[in-house]
Predict the structure.
Amino acid sequence: MDQKTEPEINVSGLIYIPDFISVQEQDFLLSQIDQQSWLTDLKRRVQHYGYKYDYKARTVSNDAYLGSLPAWLSLLSNKLHNDGIFPSVPDQVIVNEYLPGQGISAHIDCVPCFADTIASLSLGSPCIMEFSNPRTGEKRSIVLEDRSLIVLSGPARYEWQHAIPSRKSDIINGIKTERARRVSLTFRNIILN
Ligand SMILES: O=C(O)CCC(=O)C(=O)O
């Protein structure tokens, strides 16, 4: 965890780790992801591993188990635990694909479904993630570079909403940057009720 950085945006419980994986690892993950089938019921394409999350009911039901994570994901899942980022090995992963113009609306991840720590690995191209605190009205934003990992726990996970605006470009370090395809892998631990 030497490369762990507390981002300047000052959201308690938010950790940003640049270069969490190498370019070769990124290429390997993208090639694995692109060999799998996609779910197309949302505006963006997704893949679910470990357990299927029901977006409409906002639940993970007891019959949602899809099987253990494939080897190419469990390598990373074990690393997240071994590096001390997760207290136990994450058992669910959602892959999100964002084409230019696509995003994800402001939300707090389902509280009864998922345990405290949640981490997203960014592949392909950077984007801005926005944080907003509905209680205080505070707003922050952070650049998620490709190959970076963002970790949310405590207040960042439970008190702040996060979103990726649906647009075709971002201002990154003062420069208008056209978006390209971004793929993220979000790791979680399921709480079965
Ligand atoms: O794409 C990301 O990095 C975030 C994904 C996310 O917020 C979610 O799946 O709930």
Notes: Residues 94, 96, 104, 109, 120, 162, 164, 184, 186 surround 2-oxoglutaric acid (CB under 6 Å).
